[in-house]
Amino acid sequence: MRTGWRLGVILLLFAVSAVVLHRVPAVKGATNPVSLFALPMAFGAWTGAEGIPEEILPVDPNERLSVRRTYRNGSQLAWVSVALFVGQDVESRRASVNKIYPQHGVSLIEPVSFGLSLPGSPATSVTLPAVIIHHQDSRRLLVAYWHQIGNRIYGGEYRFRLALMRELILTRGVDSILVRIATPLGTGLSGADERAIVESLAPSIYAALHREQVER
Amino acid sequence: MNGVAAPEKVVTDIVASNGAVQAGARPVNGRLAWLALGVTVLGVLVLYAPLVAGMAAEWSEFPSLSHGFAVPVISAYLLWRRRHFLAQAPIEGSILGLPLIVFALAMLVVGSLGGEPFVARLSLPLVLFGAVLFLMGGQVTRQSWVAIAYLAFMVPLPYLTLRALTYQSRLFDAGITAQALGWLGVPVLRDGVMLHLPNMTLEVADDCSSVPAIAALLALGAAYSQMQSRPTWIRVLLTISAAPLGLLSNIIRLILTSISVYYFGAIALNNVIHKFNGTSVFLATVLLLVLLDTLLVRVRARESS
């Protein structure tokens, strides 16, 4: 009798789990790509042109859509990619960490990070993950990136995954964007100048995407 | 002779006493409990069918995960080896199993709805463990926990963790290989994961890292240690040694490949050892495990004597 009760409890728990798993609504894959196109063609003295070489910032096969631009300010150069990922209950629809920066023909990927204060209400302080990529042909590239869900930005991969999980469970739908900023190193500027490029562009990009989100 | 005979008699009496208890009460409850466990396992299979199918697809897609097919078989074998102990173990279901089942099912739901398959998949051995404890009790769980825990090896590691580990391992492997090549008189310049030899530049690529196979190597170590009649400390040591031994095998393979390239050129990259990365590391790890096991058994024998 006692065993029968125990079995009953287990089967009841299994049934409840199965019902929960099968009755929840499917993840919404609705996408509104307008926010991507909020990325302006010019930021102050920076002017943009469409396109980024694949060896600088590879296209992630999992992205639904992306805006990829090359910005110039005199001799300074920066590449900005804003990619949209939708319906991320399946891993194949997520930003893949190996596509965040190029790895082909790379001898060393050196992690660096720097703190930024981003506009908004209230202003957000965030530490962006970044890497210095040492290419085999002595080229060096600084790549900084962040994930963004709505107006919340995530520098760490694990924090982003936890946020995705929370959104998927609670809202059954989450679109996220991955913003990557790359600039070449060793073009005569000091390292601090190259960091300054990213540090000046990142708040402007965030402000443009943030404004779009607020207006929507 | 007499001093030996008396304890044997006592042992026989205890066994007879247990047998009497079993004859009186256990068969009905025992059979019912085992039947309940069978039904529960069936329920687990139904509930987890989509997850198991997903795992099987990954096992067949990625060679470094292909050991996943062997894990349930080895787990069943480990259980079968304990069948006599399981048959003797008294059945007294423990309420402690219930919170475990609830926790595991919560992991299943959160992992499945949150799109984190690792969390959901890892709940499978946990729910089995909880069910055995809840229905059969502590004695049966003690005899079967190794086989159940072994199922965790079939769960592919989360991609993010694997990716970070793989890159660090590539840097580490390249560093050690360059160091060893220097000692062996082979001129080499290491630049991150690149090894510049006078005649060729080699890249310690993702496939050259043994990290993706680390779960397979740990599974191998655990299976090897469980199949030998060894004290617990040797079993634990053999299990946890499999991963570093696998890394060591891989570094030896990289050193041999680099030396071959230095002396024979690009043709050395087309040899069997380099082509079958995973297999050669796997076989070398087995060899090193056997050597370590032999060494530990000798140490133990010497200490005993």
Q: What share of residues of chain B is helical?
A: over 70%
Average pLDDT rating of chain B: 82
Distance between the termini of chain A: 61 Å
Principal-axes shape call of chain B: globular
Amount of beta strand of chain A: 25-35%
- Main sheet makeup of chain A: 9 strands, antiparallel
Gross geometry of chain A: elongated
Main beta-sheet strand count, sense and barrel state of chain B: 3 strands, antiparallel
Distance between the termini of chain B: 23 Å
> Helices and strands of chain A: which structural class?
alpha+beta
**Chains forming the largest contact:** A-B, 38 and 37 residues
Number of helices of chain A: 3
Q: Could you list the spans of chain B in which at least 5 consecutive residues all have pLDDT below 50?
A: 1-28
Number of domain modules of chain A: 1
Rg calculated over all Cα atoms of chain A: 21 Å
- What is the strand tally of chain A? 9
What is the CA-based Rg of chain B, rounded?
25 Å
Quaternary state of this entry equals heterodimer
Number of strands of chain B: 3
Fraction in helix of chain A: 25-40%
Q: Biggest sheet of chain B: strands side by side, in what order?
A: 1-2-3
